[in-house]
């Protein structure tokens, strides 16, 4: 027998090399197998050196409000991940304004990631610049997008265009945009709708001119045919391209686009769970009455005859002073000395409605004179309105609505420091309740903004009168808003002044009959601003993560949630499959909806449950 010592040197070297390679392979295998699962399946990709966290905070806040579990990764972290660990992340977001330059290594990793089955959301100007801040001849990820979208050499500054945004009606529904925000496009027949606005002539959006035919589903485009949003297959994965500066718009009170596409990416592309933004996951509307002067009082009796007082609760806001257009005109309600108005306020309060302030004491006089710089002079009008109403309700004022939509920043600051929880808002049109801000660092502690919903440039009954909107169209829009709230399990605000209802009484009857039936079915609720603001502030404290379920088939997902006070009435909406979710710990009610599973937490501070995503190989085989 030949001993080890007699082996030739080359044999020893071969053995040592083999052992080293085996050790390296075992180390890599162990690293991949034992790597900690991600705390979310969606990653927001940030540059290694972030000059400001302002826009990253905007994404973080949008994810929180949308109920999307999202982690943040740097470019280096993603590149250095083991492929198996990277594959556990279902979707990666490359945001505009933050990530204009990416390395060749990152570009290669992202393409490999999508080819292998991942989903990538590329936004606007992402990956369009070199390290020196100059535009590239071609974007680093152009092949994934599928169209040319950086035409600086050809068009110069004209490569960015401001124009109308068009969407097919089916895409408006798929992306989850509330009825009315898109209106018929006269030149497009029935195929296209155009984004509208409220209070302005036309809604114009900035996008990059594109060339080429998009090889996927077009979600939005410009009048020139440029792709504004589209989803395509690439390899085994998917690419979502959104050609709008959604991050920039978010911090300038037009956050609808960021949140809508984030929901679309989470819910439709990735089929991931979301934390509902309404109690118990039951959608509904906030009905906000603006009672602004003495001539509005007789119409409260009309609202009662139409059946408004049989439903609710509603948010009813009063302008309390003795004047309206000018000091001394005596056209106001004079709440402090008007027994009839006081009686109405107490009656509505007794029905569970929330009484709020509509502007500052003299509706038109206040609205026409305040601006960003004269808060010191006009804040007393807010004080007077607050005192008058609290003198009747004997409870703190928690809601506010701006007269004529005029809402300078100092008004928000005043509300914030005087215990007001929520306010009506004409920015962030068609969104649900949100923390509206210019600087995201100032978000926490601000009152909740409740954006107006509108049907084009009509949001209230009196505006419908001025625009000669047929009653049938007003009825159709209001009923579609109720259906939207039910189907999306979200909340939106609609508002009016009582006199305007006089011209749409049948619309009001039909709408209230619809909401009565939906309420009896348990799928619709009326909410007040205060109710939702308190719920959402509690919801903000909830931390939750979603990842692979330990020891189960990869299609199984585990959700873990905590709240320092209570998780009660927080609901998770899960993509529907045949297997019922499994409660691991905590208290929750699990129910099957037509298109989803709803898991609603009971009392307790912690909750864990698992479910299988649709298409898993065990679906239909019964429980584990």
Walkthrough of the structure:
The chain has 624 residues and is an alpha/beta fold. Helix content is 33%, strand content 22%. It has 20 helices and 28 strands. It has a 10-stranded mixed beta sheet with strand order 2-1-3-4-12-11-10-6-8-7. Strands 14, 15, 16, 17, 18, 19, 20 and 21 form an 8-stranded parallel beta sheet that branches. Strand 26 (588-592) and strand 27 (596-601) form a beta hairpin. Helix 2 (54-66) packs across helix 10. It is globular and about 110 Å long. Mean pLDDT is 91; it is low at 20-37 and 620-624.
Structural class: alpha/beta
Strand content: 15-25%
Give the low-pLDDT segments.
20-37, 620-624
Q: Count every beta strand, where a strand is a DSSP E run of 2 or more residues.
A: 28
Indicate the radius of gyration in whole angstroms.
Answer: 28 Å
